[in-house]
Amino acid sequence: GGGDDAGSSGGGGDDKITMGFSQVGAESGWRTANTKSIQESAAAAGIDLKFSDAQGKQENQIKAIRSFIAQRVDVIAFSPVVESGWDTVLKEAKDANIPVILTDRSVDSQDKTLYKTFIGSDFVLEGKKAGEWLVKEYEGKSDPVNIVELQGTPGAAPANDRKAGFAEVIKADPKFKIVASQTGQFTRTDGKEVMEAFLKSQPKIDVLYAHNDDMGLGAIEAIEAAGKKPGTDIKIITVDAVKDGMTALAAGKINYIVECSPLLGPQLMDLAKKVKAGETVEQRVLTQETTFTQEQAKTALPDRKY
Ligand code: GYE
C-alpha cells in the first residue's frame, strides 16, 4: 500500500491495504447510500480507499481499473455498470496479480478465475418477489391486469434480472399483461418522464413495476400530475427500500417494496483483507434482504439507516 501512515493500528505501514474502487455513479438514493457505506467502512477498517466515480460510463470504469493496476493497488473492487465487456480488463488485472472483488453487480464473463468473489443481492429473486406480491394481490380475480414497467439502466445486471424474475412469476397467469416496458435509467427524472409518456399512450394502467425506488418516486409525480392517485388508481411495486421509498410506501403511494441492501461496505472490507492475506473466500456472498408492505414500512421507517 502507499501513503504515509501516521501509525495505523498494529503493524507498520506495509500492512495497510490499498483498495481501488470504481463506483457506477450517483444515479439513485441506493447508490448514494452504497458509496457512503464503502467510504465509511474503508476508514473504519484502516483501508486506504482510492474512490473513482464512473458517472454511469463503462469506459470510465475501464480507465479507472487500468489506473488502479498501474498504481499497483492491493485490491480492486468495482460495481460493473453493465454485465458484459469486462474480460480484457479483468485479464489485465489478473496478469498483474491484483485480486478483483465484484461488488453489488456481476459480470457475464465465463472465466470465473477473473475475479475472487462477488458480493451482492440476488436480483432475479428480487424480481420474483415483486411478481409474487402481484399474483397474491390479484388472487381470485380474472380481469386483465395491465402493467407498465420502468427498467433500470440497459444492460445492467439488476435491470436484466429484475425484469426476468418478475416475468417468470407473472407468466403463470395470462391476465397479467406488460403493456409497456422502457428504461428509466434508475433515476427519478427519467422515471417521471417515461411514466408521463406511458400515461399518455396507455388507456388503462393498473400496475407500475419500477426496478428501483427512485424511478417509482419520479413516476408518482407524473401520476399525481395526471390527476390520479398513486397506490390506489395505479398500484406501485418498487425495489430498494431507501428512506424516500419507504416514506412513500408508509404514506400509501407505493404498495410494496422489495428490499435491496446498499450497505455492502463492512463485508467488502472483510473480503478485501482475506483476499489480501491469501485466504480463500466464497465465490458468491449474498446479502440478506426482506420485503415491505405499507404496514411494515410504518414500523421500520423510524430506524431506517438510509
Ligand atoms: O437497485 C438502483 C441503483 O445495482 C442494486 O442500482 C443496484 C441498483 C439499485 O441505481 O437503485
From TrEMBL:
<dbReference type="GO" id="GO:0030313">
    <property type="term" value="C:cell envelope"/>
</dbReference>
<dbReference type="InterPro" id="IPR028082">
    <property type="entry name" value="Peripla_BP_I"/>
</dbReference>
<dbReference type="GO" id="GO:0030246">
    <property type="term" value="F:carbohydrate binding"/>
</dbReference>
<dbReference type="InterPro" id="IPR025997">
    <property type="entry name" value="SBP_2_dom"/>
</dbReference>
<feature type="domain" description="Periplasmic binding protein">
    <location>
        <begin position="21"/>
        <end position="279"/>
    </location>
</feature>
<dbReference type="Pfam" id="PF13407">
    <property type="entry name" value="Peripla_BP_4"/>
</dbReference>
<protein>
    <submittedName>
        <fullName>LacI family transcriptional regulator</fullName>
    </submittedName>
</protein>
<comment type="similarity">
    <text>Belongs to the bacterial solute-binding protein 2 family.</text>
</comment>
<keyword id="KW-0732">Signal</keyword>
